[in-house]
């Protein structure tokens, strides 16, 4: 299937999940993440969930990161050029939900992309080669292209891998791992 078809399929599948299923599957994903050897790093980028789109609830992952005393980075979207600005999440960081339903920092301590060691990537679908389908605006591909080549890119998905996404381009940045409630996909490059 191509990206457009997959976007439609997985938006529909996600919309059919109950709020309780979203919570339980999100906890399962957080528990799967604990099995990865990624916890020696210092700077972790996390997306804050759009609840009305039934995205994975990253609150459980956030609690793990804070419990391990990690530096947590969150982003603010610029819809004029589809880029992200990154800020350190602190006790005093004010969050506000934007017009797209995304919780974002109002301001804070900026963090450059090359300092981020692990990025938890939102997605609608992914394939066995680590390609992903998001909402189609390119925010994360632009962001990931600016990261250090050694930055770990970890997708989070309620659903298993597709065999192949047909219309992948050179601008698409593949994942290193994708974590589902029942499996961790390690992408071989």
Automatic annotation (TrEMBL):
**What is its cofactor?**
Mg(2+)
What EC number(s) does this enzyme carry? 6.3.3.2
Catalytic activity field: (6S)-5-formyl-5,6,7,8-tetrahydrofolate + ATP = (6R)-5,10-methenyltetrahydrofolate + ADP + phosphate
Task: Provide the binding site for ATP.
Answer: 3-7, 132-140
Q: Binding of substrate: at which residues?
A: 50, 55
Tell me the Pfam families matching this sequence: 5-FTHF_cyc-lig
Q: Is Nucleotide-binding there in the keyword field?
A: yes
Enzyme class (EC, first level): ligase
Q: Which InterPro entries match?
A: FTHF_cligase (IPR002698), FTHF_cligase-like_sf (IPR024185), NagB/RpiA_transferase-like (IPR037171)
| UniProtKB keywords | ATP-binding, Ligase, Magnesium, Metal-binding, Nucleotide-binding
**Per its record, what are the GO molecular function terms?**
5-formyltetrahydrofolate cyclo-ligase activity; ATP binding; metal ion binding
Q: Does the keyword Metal-binding apply?
A: yes
Biological process per Gene Ontology, one example term: tetrahydrofolate interconversion
Q: Which family would the database say this protein is a member of?
A: Belongs to the 5-formyltetrahydrofolate cyclo-ligase family.
Q: What name does this protein carry?
A: 5-formyltetrahydrofolate cyclo-ligase
Organism, as annotated: Aquimarina atlantica
